[in-house]
## 1
Amino acid sequence: MEVQAVGSVGRDCGTRLLRTGSALERSESSASVAVTNDDLCNLVEAVGATRDRHAFVALFQHFAPRLKGFALRRGIDAAAAEELAQETLITIWRKAASFDRTRATVSTWVFTIVRNKRIDLFRREGYPAVELSEIADFPAEGSNPHDGAQMAEIGDHLREAMLTLPKEQYEILTKAFFEEKSHRAIAAELGLPLGTVKSRIRLALTRLRGALPEGYT
Amino acid sequence: MIVHHPDEEILLDYGAGSLSEGLALVVATHLSMCPDCSAHVRLIERCGGALLDDAPEHRVDEQALQDVLERLDVSEPVPPPQIMRLDPETEALLPAPLRRYVTKNLVDLDWRAVGRLLEEHRLSLARKDVKAALYRFPAASRMPKHTHRGQEYAIVLAGAYRDGENRFRRGDFSAMDASHQHQPTVEPDGPCMCLVALDAPVKLLGLTGFLMNPFLRI
């Protein structure tokens, strides 16, 4: 499947190493090309509409390595990370028809899928989540229905904003995601007052929210 | 109107997937009633998506793809999850996330009397060391004075209670931990129903607490 290489901020190896801060987390991206959210939406919709296996394989090739890397960063062991990536892709296959490109980027959708999976050696537990279809009275995001291109732009703005956060804000935000640490635990680890941790997270989120168009979150 | 919301730390934990099932259920129940908190969580989820986009790529075995393709053959597409349809009173009272755990009409639920005053309907979670339950308290009753070893999240579904200066009504959320001691009192105008999740046993205070230990039974 042909995918267009699209230049985008922060994709080069150097920035990635800077952000991950570890020489060991070297991306094997020399062979991979950047795919756009539009490409990913098309793939998911192809799977949803016609059970397109080629499209699924492309999604696998894009997401499985990232899901595994994401899980490993969360401290999950390699075997469980592998299983989590596979289970997530199977769920993508099963739920593809319900993906709505006007609601979220594919990456956000996939993130919520992997977040809702709780797989470890001893038990599987659900993660209570709210399906958008269950919320009757919520106003639609933004004043107009938005399309995949706008959503892609929103996704890109957010990623750009994340990559340009001050280092100390980015560090704390990623600790919350990857290390499941409470604000208190982060403060203890970094030797900072709790108030400083709280304010850095708040500043980071305010900045990220500011990168989104009016009326969107 | 909802006045008491989960703080930003709790919303971040929820959005990032760090909460245990019981605590997450209380937050999800609040979110289904609160557009502002939901919007905040959507931002967190977008952050998660961005972090996933830029996650280091770890090589995945060729065999893994084959395994998954084989499993696809037995994975039929699923429609969006259907929430059990319940009677109007039950559906009005119990928001959607909770209706995955409460699968009968309210009138058909079995309630366990706890002490003289309150009734409990325990929800079934995957882990046994975390507890979530519906509680019914009569009007004007005082909940047992207690503090908490771990975290306690609660949301009001019906009626109201007072805790110190604050009044909690439908949709209002509270989070308590070991630094809080409290003795909430139900308002006199009617009974109160709450969803409460605990991740460690509540520690009852005083002689009354010692004699009556509903929350300790995990």
## 2
Amino acid sequence: MSKDNGAADLSALLSAVAVGDQQAFAEVYDATAARVFGLVHRVLQDRGQAEEVAQEVFLQVWRSAGSFDATRGSGLTWILTLAHRRAVDRVRSAVSRSAREEVYESQRVSGPRDHTAEAVEERMEARRVRTALQRLSETQRCAVELAFFDGLTHPEVSDRLGVPLGTAKTRIRDGLRKLRNELGGAS
Amino acid sequence: MNDQDPDKGEVDDGSGAMHDLAGAYLLNAVDARERVRFEQHLTGCVECRETVAELSGTVAELSVGLELEPPPELRGRLLAQIVNEPQNPGAAPEQDELAQRRSRPVSRSGRRWLAGIAAAAAVAVGAVTITQWGQDSPDQAVVAAQDVLEAPDAVRSTERLGPSTVTVVTSASLARSVLVAEEMDAAPQGRAYQLWFVHEDGSAVSAGLMPPVTSESTTLLLEGHPDDAIAVGLTVEPSGGSQQPTSEPIVAVPLEG
């Protein structure tokens, strides 16, 4: 399952995609599809919808690669930001809510025997993020998780947590800041 | 969808309510109207622009560990679709720079090395040294790196890291591992390379600090025992080392079995 694609870094690939390089697009896909699909699937909890949204995300990457600005963040961050936004927009639509399946856990293929270097690095990094999340206050962590993974709006977060709206907003912001400090500002 | 109460701070009344929305905006926890309003606010607020720039990478990291292979048909479908899909205009990069970058293959590990670590990845060249570092537990016979390298059951696993090569040699009978790093550049000023035995669940146990790189090849007997570790990871840490990794690994060498 090793995804060492031996290609240039993502920023350079996106620059190539911006001028219509289809091979570069394929490489961008290969480098990021699992991360995009995994995120979208977690938010939507439905393989079919996740596939549709993932397709929309990559089409958007193709169409708007020219607006990616490498000085403002990494290519991966840019792509994941697009992906999260689309997933959240979809999860809030009436169609999504009625069609969601409840089989999320059984569909996850976590590949416990995948010990390629890349899978190991991902696992270490996932552990680091989980540990960092644990260092947030309970409200900060819940607010961030409800918003990010479940696609709740901040008023919905404040309702769910039973805190004032202003509190929900500042817990989200402070939680993200603390998370960044814990993770050392990696992009 | 939501009943928006204007008294609940939706309006930019100058009291900083817009600034407070930055976190929610980053997590897409805003509705369409708020998004437009906040993006409008961004055009005039340096502080919020900096907050968004600073934290968007962190938000992206929340998705680590969720990786899931998409259906295989998706790739082919996309490649077919883009053939006739128009693109929005954007600045085209220097063709020469592009060609240069694309002609230089870099492994995914190498990319992190280049992108994530402040030091320049130059190549160091010199003579071979063998270094033994760390305390053997008192009830164990002293094991030297050479013993592991020459053990009849020695198993080797190698990863490339740009121009560098990192090999882990493990002897199950001696229950020890040795790291051999070739053509590695010195760690940045005030930092050191730290080795970790990594387990199935991603947790890491320190296997020691690499002594300063002074030659073409560095050999290091790792502290502790491989046991059921699935890999040896290498991170850049403060010079005294850390209890737990504080940054992404620059390379991970999977262990056999």
